[in-house]
Amino acid sequence: MNVLVGNKLRMLRKSKNMSQEEVADYLHISQSAYARMENGESGSWAIHILKISKIFVISPEELLIIDDKTNNGSSSGAATQLSKKVIEQYEERIKELKKVINDLKKKNENKM
């Protein structure tokens, strides 16, 4: 979530032709602290959400709405990629468990 919001912050800042330093000054934080927000390394944007909303003339909710423009299409791509990885892991685990079940069935049949 921090990366997605960070990307949105960067997009909003650039649309207002502001520097990181200018936004940081308004938030009363260092430029490096603001840069960490934009890079997704910090969740402190949540503390400053009302001030951020005022700077960029948006509602707090709008900051949290992530669209494809915010992430240059990467949000849906990243989510899809992550979903595929999780599915692959589950499928692999299912194969392993099916093998264990089959092995147990064979052992059970041999005992009878």
Give a nutshell description of this structure.
It is built from 6 helices and no strands.
Question: Would you kindly provide a written description of the structure presented here, covering whatever features stand out?
Answer:
This protein is mainly alpha-helical. 72% of the residues lie in helices and 0% in strands. It has 6 helices and no strands. It has helices at residues 2-15, 20-27, 31-38, 49-56, 60-64, 74-111. The longest helix has 38 residues, at 74-111. The chain is rod-shaped and about 80 Å long.
Total helical segments = 6
What portion of the residues fall into strands of 2 or more residues?
under 5%
SSE run: HHHHHH
What oligomerization state is this entry in?
A: single chain
Number of strands: 0
Secondary-structure class: mainly alpha
- The low-pLDDT segments are none
Describe the protein's topology.
Elements: H1 2-15, H2 20-27, H3 31-38, H4 49-56, H5 60-64, H6 74-111
Helix pairs in contact: 2-3
Question: What labels describe this entry?
Answer:
single chain, about 110 residues, mainly alpha, 6 helices, about 70% helix, rod-shaped
